[in-house]
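Help needed: design a sequence for this.
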């Protein structure tokens, strides 16, 4: 790289799967009842928050004034079916960063044991809840990436990947909500280095790259490295597909139940109409009401007819014509 070359941020892939999922949810919304509609509305809020958080991070990366390749929303799967959805992969001249975006509502406390506790304020009350460690989540993603790199490699190449992986790759969890306060004063040093706010992202990346003793890559090598991740990316996202299918199944089930309810209503209406007819039918012999009966014996067994309420004193019968 020349001394006077201008730093380039190249976005090799921007997210689209979350936006497509959002569009599908918004199409489903008017097609269902209030109960399922509330589920879809909650899911829409979560997806929109995720998109907003990733947009904040993307803005920071685009304005980093560094040479880097950026891939957003990458899904990598191993041959045995384990998958990792990675919000951002950022390739710099020395280090590749795997970024987990968290657009959480509320403030985050990290204790000395690495536990994450979120505090949310509603009115005058504060609610605390433990949340799954985003560090653990992101490190599992990195392990899946490492496993995918080891696949179809010979023993020597595999040993090189294992030995150099953690020197060349770093995990970062970025809190993208600008209102979130991060309290990590009791957290261990390695936790503090991995969990940051969005406004600290570029400073952190520059610091890690500057401190790295790994050899620098050329822009061509950075591009090849970025493209290797892009080749592994799978567009059919299990997490989105499964959620969407679950919601559509609920809607179909609901429609089926509604059809049954309508059928019952129709039957009920027919029965009511039949009863009203019965109320209007009077026996011409004795003046009593005619009621619907079913023949139990003989050639007409199973057939319905109108008989006099005063049976057996009055044996008047009115047959029902076949439809």
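Sure. Designed sequence:
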């Amino acid at each position: 790289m020349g001394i006077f070359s201008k730093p380039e941020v190249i976005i090799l892939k921007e997210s689209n799967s979350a936006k497509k999922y959002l569009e599908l949810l918004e199409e489903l919304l008017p097609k269902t009842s209030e109960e399922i509609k509330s589920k879809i509305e909650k899911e829409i809020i979560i997806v929109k928050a995720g998109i907003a958080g990733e947009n904040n991070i993307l803005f920071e990366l685009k304005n980093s004034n560094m040479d880097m390749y950026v891939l957003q929303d990458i899904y990598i799967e191993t041959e045995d079916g384990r998958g990792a959805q990675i919000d951002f992969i950022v390739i710099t001249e020395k280090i590749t960063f795997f970024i987990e975006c968290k657009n959480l509502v509320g403030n985050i406390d990290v204790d000395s044991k690495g536990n994450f506790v979120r505090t949310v304020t509603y009115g005058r009350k504060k609610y605390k809840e433990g949340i799954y460690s985003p560090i653990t989540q992101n490190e599992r993603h990195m392990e899946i990436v490492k496993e995918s790199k080891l696949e179809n490699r010979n023993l020597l190449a595999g040993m090189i990947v294992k030995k150099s992986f953690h020197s060349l790759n770093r995990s970062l969890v970025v809190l993208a909500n600008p209102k979130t306060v991060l309290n990590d004063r009791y957290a261990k040093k390695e936790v503090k280095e991995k969990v940051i706010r969005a406004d600290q992202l570029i400073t952190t990346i520059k610091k890690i790259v500057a401190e790295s003793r790994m050899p620098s890559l050329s822009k061509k090598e950075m591009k090849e490295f970025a493209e290797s991740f892009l080749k592994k990316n799978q567009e059919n996202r299990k997490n989105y597909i499964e959620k969407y299918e679950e919601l559509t199944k609920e809607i179909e089930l609901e429609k089926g139940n509604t059809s049954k309810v309508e059928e019952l209503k129709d039957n009920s209406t027919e029965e009511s109409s039949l009863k009203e007819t019965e109320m209007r039918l009077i026996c011409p012999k004795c003046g009593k009401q005619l009621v619907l009966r079913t023949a139990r014996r003989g050639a007409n067994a199973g057939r319905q007819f109108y008989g006099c309420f005063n049976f057996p004193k009055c044996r008047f019968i009115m047959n029902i014509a076949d439809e």
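Residues 238-280 form the longest helix (43 residues).
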